[in-house]
Specification:
Blueprint: E1 26-28, E2 33-47, E3 50-57, E4 65-67, E5 76-85
Parallel strand pairs: 1-4, 2-5
Antiparallel strand pairs: 2-3
Length: 88
Amino acid sequence: MGGGGGSAPSAPSALKAGAPLENPEELVSHDGVLRAELDVSGRLVNMAGRKLRALTYNDRFMPPALAHPAGGPAGRTELETLAYSTGA
């Protein structure tokens, strides 16, 4: 199973105070089916210079956006959660 294009970073990116927000990774369906794997874990992330515990998705702070293109075949989404840990 795989997601959309792009490569996942090795660690959650840090957000700097005043930095513009970025759109989350987008996973798009193919032939009406969106298959994706999510590795969900709790970890410390750097948010505007402060460390906080948060859930991350495939090593990213923002979960991916799931998309079924308009005008395409009827959509079905299949998500597999690979792991969930609290990081404790």
